[in-house]
Structures are given as structure tokens and as C-alpha cells.
Amino acid sequence: MHPAQLLQSRLFWRIVAGTVCISLVTVVAISLAGSTAFGLLVGLACGTVAGMVVAYLLSRRLARAADELAISIRDLGQQPLELPDVDSLGDEFVRIVDELQSTDERLRDRFAEMERHRTRLEQNTTLLQTVFGAMIEGVIVVDTDQQILFANDTATNMLEIRAHDRTERRIWEVARSRPIHEALNRVIDTGSLQRIEFELPRQRRTISLTAIALPEEPIPGVVIVLHDVTELRRLERTRQDFVSNVSHELKTPLTSIQAYADTLLEGAIDDAGHNRQFVERIVEQTERLRTLILDLLSLAKIESQQEVFEIQPVRIAAVVANCIDAHRAIAESKDVALICPDTVEDSVLMADPDGLRTILDNLVNNALNYTPAGGSVFLEFARDENWGEIRVRDTGVGIPRDQLPRIFERFYRVDKARSRAVGGTGLGLAIVKHLTQEFGGNVDVTSELGVGTTFRVRLPLAAEHVTTGD
């Protein structure tokens, strides 16, 4: 402590007053003993000066100890406690120091515990953020004022919420979707779980929403879980369409078989002029039913990857020649020219031999079915550096442009009446698409109404037939 501050200390002046009192008592004692007046004055002066010196030194020592205690009290629990030596200052100071040391130890234990809790809280927070960030579901937490407390990346992407709007904004300000707001209001008002499904027209998404109140009373907020079910609903519609189409395709030949059989049972079996014709129709419809079932099984195996293909080099010229021979009689009966260049380049493709034959058979059969009498179907082949391209081109009725993306779907028919009239299962092009993909290639189609249609199947060339650039 500075000397000027020491002179202003009450402790200092109390010690001085005590010293003066002692000096006066000493002077009185000397006077009673018969000392002279001069001696009394000298004794008084010396006693006073000595008392003041002692008071100064003692108060300075006490002030230093007080300063050190004040610093120690300020740093309690934060850094090692350095307390002054107060043993010579009295029991009162010793008790104060002991209590400070005990308090410091308790505070250090408490701070250490708080630090451990803080570390665990940070770890848990990081873990939760990682989990929520990896979820395919969107998660949003709002309070009862519908202010966003948390939103993961999936939720912000689904609802197109900007990054700086994901917290401290009301959800109806950043996600303008009436179904969300209505579900939130019902949860806040009633506390009951809400499940709804709604559309996001601009994104063409179907969203399933679950909203549940946080578990406290009164309700502190609501957790919203969003799940994109667009693909699931599309698959459900595809499944429903598939079941409907399969049912119809199976029903048609079965109905014909039943009608012809009933006719025979009702007496036509004895009609020599017609009974054979009815039996032939039954056999025809049975074969159609068998073909449909085989195509369904084949497509199911391909899609489920249960079909094991032996991918190997296949000479395209031999496959094309076999396809032409197999369909020549059908083409002639329909008065359709089946044309293939005399010299198809003898390139080698990587494919399963049976699968490649199925691809060509289905495409040629499809072209023959939709090409009127007098038309033509062409089988062509081309190649580039790494790929071979098989083209099946016809001069048939063509396909409307808006229906081209759907022709590879199962049972999809551009002209349902004509398709059933020419026969077929409606699965041929779907099988072509899946087989081509299994062989590492692709298939596409171009068409013009009244002009014709061209299917292109691209498959990788065998390694020894790949052309390397310079």
C-alpha cells in the first residue's frame, strides 16, 4: 500500500491513537514519580514518535496482508491460491486464511465439474448435429411462437429455406406451406400428434409430415419430421398400374379360352365344320398366356438381378443373321420387307449371347407389328471407337413425341386397341431396356408420326475391337 493511502487508513490512526494514549499514561506515571517538566516533555515526545513508528510499521504489514488477501479472494477457484503468512498477525487472520483455502478448494472442484459437464455437452451437441445432418429426413424444432430453433440441412433443402433464415425466424416467414402451419397450430393447441401428407408443387415433391409436441407442460415447442415420399408414391402407382395391367393381360386370353371351351361344351364339339377352329383358338390363346407368363418371369429375374448373364464376346453378324432367318416368314406373311445389308460389319460386342438375341427379336418383332403392309424394317449396324450400335428402323405408323419417354414401361401401349389386335405382351421393350443396361449399354428411340421409328441399342465393343485414338 502507498504511504499516502496508509495515512488515510483508519487502522493506522487507531494504532496511532492507542500509542498516544500509552505515551500519556507513561508521562503521568513519570510525573507521579517526581520527574521534572522537561523530562516529562522529552518522554512524551519520544513515546509518541516511537508509537507512531511502530503504528506505521504494524499498519503497513497489516495493509500488505489485506491487499494479498483481496487478490487471493478475487482469484478464488481460477488459479493457484497464494496466501500471505499471517501466523504473526493473530488467530483472526489465520482463520480467515484457512477459510479462504477451504473455499478455494471447493470452488476448484465445482469449476472442474462444470468444465467436465461443458465438455460433455459440447460432445453431445456435436454428435446430435452430425446425426441430424446425416438424416435423410428433415427435422425442424420450433417454439410455441413458431420461431425456428433448429433445422437440419435436409429440411432447409426440402422447404428451400435459406441458410441465414434457418434460426430466429418464424417458420411461416420462410416456408410458405399452409399444411405445415395448420399441423403446427393443431399440435400447439391440442398437444396431439399430427401426421399429414402434402405436395410441394414447385418442386413436384410429396412430403410426409409428423409433428409432435416437446414433452413438457406447458408445451415449450414442436418437433417436425419431414420425409420425402415422392419416389415411394411413384413406385406405389407403378405397382398398382402393374397389377392392373397384369390382371387385364391375363384376363383377356383366359376369357377367350373360357368362351371357346363353353361353346364346345354347348354342342359345337360335334360341329365338324367349326370344332377344330375353336380348339385352334384355345391353343392360340394358351400360347399367348404362356408367353406373357414367361416374359413376366424373365423381366422379374432381370430386375431383381437373379438372372445370371455370361458376358462374353459375341459376333454381331451371326446374331443379326439368325434374327433375320427367324422373322423372315412372319415378315412375308405381313407383306413387310425385312432388310439387312449384305455385309454387316463383323464386329464383336460384349454381351450375353441369349440376351442379345432376345433384344434383337423383341425389337424386330415390335417393328413388324407396327409396320403396315408394303412397309420395310431395316437392321443396321454402326460403330465408333468404343461402342457398337444396332439400329432397328421401320417405316411404320410412328410414335407421338409426348409418349416416347414411356414406351419402355411395362405394359405401356401407345395404341391399346392396335396393340392387342397385333398381339404381344406389352413387356418386350421393357425387357430390351433392362437387358441393355445389364450389358453395360443403353437404348434410345426416335420417331415421327407417319414416317417410322428407329431404336438404337449401344453396347461396348470387345477389347480387341476397340479403336484407340492417337
What does this protein look like?
By secondary structure, the chain is α+β, with helices and mostly antiparallel strands. The chain has 4 domains: 3-74; 136-228, PAS domain (Beta-Lactamase); 234-303, Signal transduction histidine kinase, dimerisation/phosphotransfer (DHp) domain (Helix Hairpins, Orthogonal Bundle); 312-465, Histidine kinase-like ATPase, C-terminal domain (Heat Shock Protein 90), CATH 3.30.565.10. The protein is 54% helix and 16% strand. The protein has 13 helices and 12 strands. α9 (275-303) packs parallel to α13 (428-438) and α11 packs antiparallel against α13 (428-438). The longest helix has 44 residues, at 91-134. The chain is elongated and about 165 Å long.
CATH topology of the largest domain: Heat Shock Protein 90
Please state the average pLDDT score. Answer: 77
Terminal CA distance reads 91 Å
Name the poorly predicted regions. Answer: 5-9
| CATH fourth-tier homologous superfamily of the largest domain | Histidine kinase-like ATPase, C-terminal domain
Strand content: 15-25%
Structural class: alpha+beta
Indicate the topology.
Blueprint lengths: L2 H5 L2 H23 L4 H38 L16 H44 L3 E6 L4 E4 L1 H7 L11 H4 L3 H13 L3 E7 L4 E9 L7 E8 L1 H36 L9 H29 L8 E4 H18 L3 E3 L8 E4 L1 H17 L6 E8 L3 E8 L21 H7 L5 H11 L3 E7 L3 E9 L10
Parallel strand pairs: 7-9
Antiparallel strand pairs: 1-2, 1-5, 3-4, 4-5, 6-8, 9-10, 10-12, 11-12
Helix pairs in contact: 2-3, 8-9, 9-13, 10-11, 11-13
Give a short overview.
The protein has 470 residues and is of the alpha+beta class.
List keywords for this structure.
elongated; phosphoprotein phosphatase activity; 5-stranded mixed β-sheet; Beta-Lactamase; 16% strand; cell membrane; 5-stranded antiparallel β-sheet; 4 domains; Helix Hairpins; 470 residues; 13 helices; kinase; alpha+beta
